[in-house]
Amino acid sequence: MLDFNAPEFVVVAIVALIVIGPKDLPKAMRFLGKWFGKARAVARQFRSGFDNMVREAELAELEKQWAAENARIMSEHPPAALPAPAPEAEVYHAGEDAPPVMVEQPMIAAETPGVSAPKPKRVRKPAAVAPVAETASVEAAPKSKPRTRKAPAADPAEAAAAAKPRARKPKAQPPAEAAE
Hints:
Layout: H1 6-20, H2 25-76, H3 132-140, H4 156-162, H5 176-179
């Protein structure tokens, strides 16, 4: 392909500067850059299309080889005959209702070394029932009102006016005698 050395590139740049001129040289370089970019894109597209064609041809060849090998293996080892189906009387159908089979649970002896007896489950104590006098006093107590938030004001000036200024505590000043 084209190979430019540094001295050759300098000669081409000087000739382009003289022939095209310094005013139009940036436009010409931009024009050449666009054309080189388009040429590279076409070359890339051609190369990828060619690679796809080669890949498809290789896949078709591999499929033919696989089919031939598969046919050879199947001819050497024919499939075995399936066993005869069992008579209908011996076949168990899952839909039939049969009584469940009960099996006795094995007993674990406490004397068995390395095996401990299961721990008993913890049971919660029932909650104590409150005396009637306490419930009456609870019902008579005034209920507190649920707190709600005010919707924010749309105008910032209204929000500033609605806000309550906080009173600050005055700083403790040292006694006048201590200052003198």
